[in-house]
């Protein structure tokens, strides 16, 4: 146990730390987000387990902290006074203060504090209330069944490109009222922009991200100008709602408007694609749980929560200390950068019994896949609906589907999902 950076261990972690192997200590000692081994992308959980038991508040070589315990993440998510989501300090050296990636990520909802975060979240949330989401269900079922019909005709499919990624693109396209024939570039833009959030950023990935932001902004300027001339229904059209602003008359600036339209695509596309893809892959990896869900379809709600916990779509979050803080005896001076490891916290044995076991009936399940506190994902209930309908309807149609080749994971640390998932449909 580190004497300088570790928090006090729970009983379960004390036992794990006491039994830590030389391999565990080597994983902790060699851990660096800037140089992750290939094996990490396939299975990061041994590393997370070692960090959580041996050094749960790990001081990295650059002075930042890497946190892996559920209760530590919960405490930070709920404390917006001492821990900021604003990324200007962090992203200026990473992207360059004048870059388009910097402008986008420091203006979007997720990487901001109040008052901008509050204003934008309120506008978006108004179009994602329970009534609005319920109204989306019939069209979502029609979309999913159409995709299933196409796959059934062929007998094989790539569950990412043909299914998991296609669903949120259509849903978000509808939310922003993007003409269907103009939706082709959306997924590529999203992947490029989010790819630039990886801890280790190559020049090539940065250039792709810059180009994607530029192209997306050019498109959105045209779309927003047309929407001003021809407003949609603000109850369902998020772009119209963002343009109209609040009842008080306060409106978003043009950069705030455009950058948060990009955020809506990115946030809704990547996490939901990964939720559906990861969930279906888990149903192949754990056939007993697949059989259990097929025999009792009512378990789909708890199954979705377990998929989110077991293979969190978003694995890493970040905060900056803006007032001197302390957690479990670890001093965090003002200015310290913090990485919150959601993937590790969601396998923490303190809140989750047998955390490395997939249990689709797990209850309670206080996972942090959607974060927590004021920055909890604004579209979490829409993502849950998409996941429930996509996976339940797929299993009802193809209960015996099987892989035709090994799935290919994206080589990314922040977002966990697949690039391809080839299957035979039975």
Descriptive report:
The chain is an alpha+beta fold and 426 residues long. It is 53% helix and 9% strand. The radius of gyration is 21 Å and the shape is globular. The termini are far apart. 42% of the residues are buried.
Structural class: alpha+beta
- Radius of gyration, CA atoms, in whole angstroms: 21 Å
Overall mean pLDDT stands at: 93
Extended strand count: 12
Report the end-to-end length measured between terminal Cα atoms. Answer: 50 Å
Q: What summary fits the major beta sheet?
A: 5 strands, mixed
Total of helices? 19
Q: Uncertain regions: pLDDT < 50 for 5+ in a row?
A: 1-11
Topology overview:
Elements: H1 11-18, H2 22-30, H3 38-42, H4 45-54, E1 57-59, E2 65-67, H5 70-78, E3 83-84, H6 88-95, H7 100-105, H8 116-126, H9 130-154, E4 156-158, H10 160-164, H11 166-175, H12 186-195, H13 203-229, H14 238-244, H15 254-285, H16 287-295, H17 300-310, E5 316-321, E6 325-327, E7 330-332, E8 337-341, H18 342-345, H19 380-397, E9 402-403, E10 408-409, E11 418-420, E12 422-424
Parallel strand pairs: 2-8
Antiparallel strand pairs: 1-2, 3-5, 4-12, 5-8, 6-7, 9-12, 10-11
Task: Please outline what is shown here.
The protein is 53% helix and 9% strand. It has helices at 11-18, 22-30, 38-42, 45-54, 70-78, 88-95, 100-105, 116-126, 130-154, 160-164, 166-175, 186-195, 203-229, 238-244, 254-285, 287-295, 300-310, 342-345, 380-397, and strands at 57-59, 65-67, 83-84, 156-158, 316-321, 325-327, 330-332, 337-341, 402-403, 408-409, 418-420, 422-424.
């Amino acid at each position: 146990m580190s004497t300088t950076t570790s928090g006090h261990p729970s009983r379960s972690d004390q036992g794990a730390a006491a039994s830590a192997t030389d391999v565990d200590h080597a994983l902790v000692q060699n851990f660096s987000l800037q140089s992750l081994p290939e094996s990490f992308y396939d299975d990061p959980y041994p590393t997370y387990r070692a960090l959580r038991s041996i050094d749960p508040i790990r001081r990295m070589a650059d002075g930042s902290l890497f946190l892996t315990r559920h209760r530590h993440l919960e405490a930070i998510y709920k404390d917006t006074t001492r821990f900021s989501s604003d990324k200007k300090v962090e992203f200026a050296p990473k992207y360059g203060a004048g870059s388009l990636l910097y402008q986008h990520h420091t203006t979007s909802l997720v990487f901001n504090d109040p008052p901008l975060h509050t204003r934008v979240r309120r506008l978006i949330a108004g179009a994602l209330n329970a009534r609005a989401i319920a109204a989306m269900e019939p069209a979502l079922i029609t979309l999913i069944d159409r995709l299933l019909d196409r796959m059934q005709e062929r007998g094989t499919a790539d569950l990412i490109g043909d299914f998991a990624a296609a669903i949120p693109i259509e849903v978000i396209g509808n939310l922003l009222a993007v003409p269907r024939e103009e939706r082709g570039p959306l997924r590529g833009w999203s992947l490029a922009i989010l790819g630039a959030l990886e801890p280790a950023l190559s020049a090539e990935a940065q250039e792709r991200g810059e180009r994607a932001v530029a192209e997306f902004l050019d498109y959105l300027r045209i779309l927003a100008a047309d929407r001003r001339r021809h407003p949609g229904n603000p109850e369902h059209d998020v772009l119209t709602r963002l343009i109209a602003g609040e009842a008080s008359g306060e409106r978003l600036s043009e950069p705030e408007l455009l950058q948060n339209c990009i955020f809506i695509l990115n946030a809704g596309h990547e996490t939901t694609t990964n939720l559906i893809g990861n969930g279906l892959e888990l149903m192949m990896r754990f056939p007993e749980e697949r059989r259990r869900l097929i025999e009792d379809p009512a378990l789909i709600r708890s199954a979705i929560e377990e998929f989110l916990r077991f293979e969190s779509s978003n694995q890493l979050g970040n905060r900056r200390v803006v007032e001197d803080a302390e957690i479990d005896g670890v001093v965090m001076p003002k200015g310290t950068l913090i990485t919150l490891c959601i993937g590790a916290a969601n396998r923490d044995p303190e809140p989750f019994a047998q955390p490395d076991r997939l249990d689709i009936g797990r209850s309670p399940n206080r996972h942090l896949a959607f974060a927590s506190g004021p920055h909890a994902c604004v579209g979490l209930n829409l993502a849950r609906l998409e996941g429930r309908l996509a996976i339940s309807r797929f299993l009802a149609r193809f209960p015996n589907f099987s892989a035709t080749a090994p799935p290919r994971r994206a080589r990314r640390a922040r977002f966990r999902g697949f690039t391809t998932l080839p299957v035979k449909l039975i």
